[in-house]
User: Fold this.
Amino acid sequence: MVINLRRAFLTGNEAIAEGALVAGCNFYVGYPITPSSEIMHYMARELPKRGGVFFQAEDEIATINIAIGASWGGARVMTATSGPGFSLMQEGIGYAIMTETPLVIVNVMRVGPATGQATKSAQGDLMQARWGRHGDQVAPVLAPESPQECIELVIKAFAISEELRVPVIVLIDEFIAHMREVVEIPSEVRIPIRRRPKDPSETPFGSPDPRVAPPMPPLGEGYYVLVTGSTHNELGYRDTRSFETHFKLAKRLWNKVWLNIDKLFEYEAWGIEDSEIGFVTFGSTSRSVRRACKLLRSKGIKAGYVRLKTLWPLKLDPIVELGEKSRAVIVPELSLGQLVLDVERGIGDSAKIISYGKVGGGEPIYPSELVKLASKVLGK
Amino acid sequence: MSVIKAHFSRKYLREETLPTLFCPGCFNGILMNALAKAFEELGIDNLKKFVFVSGIGCSSWIPSPYIKADSLHTLHGRAIPVAIGVKLAKPELEVVVIAGDGDLASIGLGHLIHAARRNVDLVTILVNNYVYGMTRGQVSPTTPIGLETPTTPYGAFEYPLDVCKVIEATNANYVARWTIAHFTQLKESIKYVFSKIRRGFRFIEVIAPCTTYISRRLRKTPADTIKDLLRTSILLNKAKSKELGKLIVGVFKSEDKPGYVELYKNYIERAKLSNVR
Assistant:
């Protein structure tokens, strides 16, 4: 496969849409919401021309459920929203997890709770992205930090969702959504093709290998598929009573993601070999962290960071390593502190942990603030 | 030696799931029979090209798991959006929604109205049993005034919703209402929406009062309830302008406008010719 790269000057939102199109997305459904609407506008313009389906639903609950139906109908589906819409989608995301329905959900984070500040950036949906659904469930969460990474991680999101039959959440924030940078778009990418059952021993909701998703039978071809959000056995028959059926299903859905953590988990580490002050970060905040670390190094302070590109499932190893090396670890976030909980879990008492939360009004965390804070923490 | 022929309806059912879990006398069986007869009379051998989408509630169990076809048993209230997704992704399939008044007239009413407004190419069968049967018979948006339920122990007092009137006011192609006492008419309506009008939103409300939480509470048998339905309903063409207290049944609307799928195809053609960048 010869991959040509095309250069373009795109915002994060446009890059999400472009990445989806490269990944073969042929069905977009959504509901207007700031600051994600440009993704929808892009798809509204591009998909009909390419013979794909663009649908503006009556609300986000309809949106997520239409996405689920379309995915079972064989389409490669994406939707994008922001906090309030993401909250409305949660029950549907849980259904997609339970029914093993591939789809990609982009959440462009804004200030909340409730309507909050619709046009202002925040990172407060981290926990919602992981834990917004009721019951035992897991869906991968990816977090790009630039328009270029929006393209790369949306493509990865489609690849994971199709391979593991799981909804994948891409979490960006308003800063990334609206910043414009030069990107390189691959001409084509490889997305796994859905497997259909080869013979009756292959069941649509059971798999001998917990790391491998069961094959997904297409509709309308005589498989007589039974899809249900209720607890079901390997064949799809509802079983709302037995412990065994539920426990087996819940564990399999859980393991399907967690046992693939090596494939799913990506991070970037910088300067952690000798760091005395460390940062753990994701999304737009990592851009300030990177700058701050360079400034600190130029002042003779050894700073390093771990940037999470995958927020879920999470490997604590790089965070643990950072904690072992550093005297203190700062966790800057555009929220009152969510990622810091993982850092506390990973590092424990091996380093001092400082949560640096700031949110509202479109205020970023400036590199200068972090430099000042780090210097103060180290007494330098 | 006599050969026992399997009942004609067996080919449309998942035999391993029978008998159904419905309460004794439940009218869901009559609807299943009407569906099977309609398919049989239309010469449909199997339901391979059909996708049934249902919600949460007793009537949503008709397709999941009893009908032998692809079936999506969705979240409560969300059968319509899931059905829209399937239809737009695979327009060649016949997508049918079967759900109750809790799903379609309460939690999912918004979706129902918008699907009807868009004239999406779906057949939707509302099984109106007047209560939330699966959760012990609480009051629903269609419960008749006066009925005692666990959440209206002193008698229902809210104005009920006439769903057919609402859907009639949209761009839906077909709107009809029958009770399970009008078996032949119901079967003919089902045949009609799968043969004569093959596009757009086709809506059939089936009045099937819950035999457990209505009939039994009123000390009536299911047979009594059927007789009541015949006595208290009136055909649309015989209903005078102010027929108070009667349930009007019949075909309220029957058109053959292009449905959403066709409109979207035209839209795609327009998009391909345009130079919007």
Q: What stands out?
A: Chain B has one domain: 22-237+245-273. The mean pLDDT of chain B is 96.
